[in-house]
Amino acid sequence: MITFENVSYHYSNAEKAAVEKVSFELEEGSFNYLTGPSGAGKTTLFRMMYMDMTPTKGRLTVFGRNVSAMSQDDISLMRRRMGIVFQDFRLLPHLTVKENVSLPLTLTGPMSQQQESCVDEIIDWVGLGHKSNILPGFLSGGEKQRVAIARAVVNRPRLLIADEPTGNVDASMGRRIMHLFTELNKQGTTLLIATHDRELMADCPAPSIIVENGRISKLHAA
Description:
The chain is α/β, with parallel strands linked by helices. It has helices spanning 42-49, 72-79, 97-106, 113-125, 141-153, 171-186, 198-203; strands at 2-9, 19-26, 31-35, 57-62, 65-66, 82-85, 159-163, 190-194, 208-212, 215-220.
């Protein structure tokens, strides 16, 4: 699914590599956490996984393809097989909640009635059915996060990567979101969650990839 082979990334204005000689594999259908202290390199790894950056050294393959050899069009097509939850949400401000959630389904043309129903269902699931026609600017941070999560899962992606997906929601909604993620995983979606939340990891055990000082310090079984 995703394989890092001695991958390093060095920002041009930094003395030290953000990540260095990182090797691990996300197997298809697996569920893993990515964790470690702030500044450890998690965000850099996360960005490379959704192909926002390519390694400065080493080899990264996504869905069996070498990222460094892909064109921008190839990358855009690959991302359609992914669901991505960003920590800063990245909602389009001029689109309503429903329009934002629908985006992954409308990239290839008008939605079917079944897809419309799926969008409505997932918006209800995250507790925002009454705000489907609201613009993001009128939502709280937690509500924006729920919209971002709904958008990421609406097309049942092959790979879901989520950066602190429960960081802005209460405990009850956090449990609902994790239930949704684990159900997707049972249906075959490969799942990686970047988190600092030890309680979440204890409530929903899964193997952990622990990052420290730009390196994988430990691969910890659930």
